[in-house]
Write a structure and sequence with these properties.
about 25% strand, three-stranded antiparallel sheet, Glutaconate Coenzyme A-transferase, about 230 residues, about 20% helix, transferase, single chain, CoA_trans_fam_I, succinyl-CoA:3-oxo-acid CoA-transferase activity, 3-oxoacid CoA-transferase, A subunit, alpha/beta, NagB/RpiA_transferase-like
Length: about 230
């Protein structure tokens, strides 16, 4: 099945106000830059965004926050975004902070059809408030629920016309599990090739999880904090 759409505008058709979106990436690495830019243009409001982080003030999901398009963030790390902090402390933005491993597993579980699971992460902290606790091998675990989304938006290094994806280096973080957990998964890729050209042994996300794919353009690939070695 050819899942290619001609551009980002066509790829995001159907996203409406108050939907839940999963957005792949880690920091600014592996984020779907074209799709985020299109969401800003669309002006869709009241979004719940599930993402490891909220970008920075002037890039990534930070652009949606600046535009007041996000109602709630479900994340694990938010320390690089002053606008995020301001909105959270002022009560403008609802925030659900989750241990990073738990966030990844909750997305993976959603894609695998596992509704809930027990984990020791977060026990004894605010994360555990109101959640069931059970003891396994003498260690307390809390019950966490799976996460799914109306749309999952991911970014891959290579993809083919059937939606098979290969991620590169650090970009192979939250992208694969989020691709599994969206009712509709949109993949923007740096290189789009015909079906059959990708070695099946190196495919990270099978095309069965992807409904739409397009070749992105003009990726900036910014670095959050550029660190250089002193002479």
């Amino acid at each position: 099945m050819n899942k290619v759409v001609k551009n980002v505008e066509e790829a995001l058709v159907g996203i409406e106000d108050n939907m839940t979106l999963m957005v792949g990436g880690f920091g600014l690495c592996g984020i779907p830059e074209n799709s985020i830019g299109q969401l800003v243009k669309m002006g869709t409001k009241g979004l719940t965004c599930i993402s490891n982080n909220a970008g920075v003030d002037d890039f990534g999901l930070g652009l949606l926050l600046q535009n007041k398009q996000v109602k709630k963030m479900i994340s694990s790390y938010v320390g690089e975004n002053e606008e995020f902090e301001r909105q959270m402390l002022s009560g403008e933005l609802e925030v659900d902070l989750i241990p990073q491993g738990s966030l990844a597993e909750r997305c993976r579980a959603g894609g695998a059809g596992i509704p809930m699971f027990f984990t020791p992460a977060g026990y004894g902290t605010e994360v555990a408030e109101g959640k069931e606790v059970r003891v396994f091998d003498g260690k307390p675990h809390i019950l966490e629920s799976a996460l799914t989304a109306d749309f999952a938006i991911v970014k891959a290094w290579k993809g083919d016309t059937e939606g098979n994806l290969i991620f590169k280096a650090t970009a192979r973080n939250f992208n694969p599990m989020m691709a599994m957990a969206g009712k509709i998964t949109v993949a923007e890729v740096e290189e789009l090739v015909p079906a059959g050209e990708l070695d099946p042994n190196f495919i990270h996300t099978p095309g069965i999880f992807v409904q739409r794919i397009f070749q992105g353009e003009k990726f900036e690939k910014r670095i959050e904090q550029r660190t250089v070695r002193t002479k």
